[in-house]
UniProtKB/TrEMBL annotation:
Record-given protein name: Twin-arginine translocation signal domain-containing protein
UniProt signal peptide: 1-34
Originating species: Streptomyces shenzhenensis
Keywords: Signal
Record bears the keyword Phosphoprotein: no
Superkingdom of the source species: Bacteria
Gene3D superfamilies xrefs: Glycosyl hydrolase domain, family 43
Length: 332
């Protein structure tokens, strides 16, 4: 796998001493201990965003962070890093915070939400949520994937990371097997699959009439037009879970992994499965990050996003009970 794949070096800038980087779990400096797959053993540092402290707080909850380094991508920017997040419950709303360090502080963008649940003439839905932003090096744009309703994932595009132009629907329940009720929480990564004529991969959560959630995946030549595997990538039952969700792709030691949250009711940890560079493996490796009983995690960690800053690996994630938590950062 060549250097650009999986966007894992898109935010590298020169040397480790001068370049704070966003990478998909590829740490520039080794950790003292390691999680499965040789990844860093992340430790909670601090809370970055708490709903009660935000000006835009329609529902008292926020989920699904995505952090991106923009200092070497955008000519005009508010900070070195953009952190996207959203409430989930109606009306939701895609939100932005910005800062100069992955450990914070992050400042709330004053005009949130940057994408709302009504965008005429394109859609009018109860809520929009689960923002995942990809720096598309081919288009030199920030591409935002988000859901609303839970049946539909959409794409919007931006040259400044703040003001977006609507593109199209990229995922819906109609593209998956009969009985599918939700297709959401999608993340997209640059990843070549020559045998499928693909340059991008999507991982997402699927629910069906059994009301147990699995991880599914798809592939695309351009990030806009997608083909989806009709079988789960990670089945909830194979890892002893009620539901699995919040997937994120990682790359290490010439192999590809999916990390995801495993829920057993109200709590859960972040797990890891090796899928291989061609997504043919199903090597379930166990716990990637063990959530703490103490606040703010209260026994639940989910929906991670990864980066490195000054050579130090970080994970930014949901901490706390579903729809009652905050956004936190852990250091590897």
């Amino acid at each position: 796998m060549h250097e650009p794949h999986l966007d894992r070096r898109l935010f590298l800038k020169g040397t480790a001493a001068t370049g704070a980087a966003l990478a998909l779990g590829t740490a520039a400096a080794p950790a003292a201990t390691a999680a499965p797959g040789g990844f860093p053993d992340y430790t909670y540092v601090r809370t970055l965003l708490t709903p009660s402290q935000l000006s835009y707080n329609p529902t008292g909850e926020i989920i699904f962070p995505t952090v991106r380094g923009v200092y070497d991508k955008l000519t005009t920017r508010l900070g070195r890093y953009y952190l996207y997040y959203a409430p989930h419950d109606a009306p939701g709303g895609i939100c932005l915070a910005y800062g100069n360090s992955l450990e914070g502080p992050f400042t709330e963008y004053p005009n949130n939400p940057i994408v709302s649940n009504k965008w005429q003439p394109h859609y009018s839905v109860s809520h929009v949520s689960s923002p995942h932003v990809l720096w598309n090096a081919d288009a030199k744009e920030m591409w935002l994937y988000f859901h609303g309703e839970n049946t539909t994932t959409r794409l919007a595009r931006s040259t400044d990371g703040i003001h977006f132009t609507y593109d199209k629907v990229v995922l819906s329940t109609s593209m998956l097997p009969a009985g599918t009720t939700e297709t959401s929480y999608a993340r997209v990564f640059r990843h070549d699959l020559p045998s499928r004529n693909a340059r991008y991969v999507m991982v997402f959560m699927l629910n069906n009439t059994t009301n147990h959630r699995d991880i599914h995946w798809g592939w695309s030549p351009d990030g806009r037009n997608w083909t989806f595997d009709q079988q789960p990538l990670i089945r909830h039952g194979d890892v002893g879970a009620v539901n699995v969700g919040g997937p994120h792709l990682l790359h290490r030691n010439n192999s590809t992994y999916v990390v995801y949250n495993k829920d057993k009711g109200s709590g859960g940890d972040i797990m890891i499965t090796e899928v291989g560079n061609d997504f043919s493996r199903r090597n379930h490796l166990g716990v990637f990050y063990n959530s703490r009983a103490a606040a703010p995690e209260n026994g639940r960690a989910a929906a991670p996003s990864f980066g490195t800053d000054g050579g130090v690996p970080y994970m930014i994630y949901e901490a706390g009970e579903r729809l009652a938590g905050s956004i936190a950062v852990a250091r590897g």
